[in-house]
Amino acid sequence: MSQYGLIIFDFDGTLAITHKAIVFCMAKTFEYFNVLPPAADRIRGTIGLSLANSFKILHPAIETAEIPQWIEIYRSYYRAEGEQYLDLFPGTKQILQLARNSGINLGVFSNKHV
Question: pLDDT (tens digit, 9 = 90+) per residue, 61-75?
Answer without folding.
Answer: 999 999 999 999 999
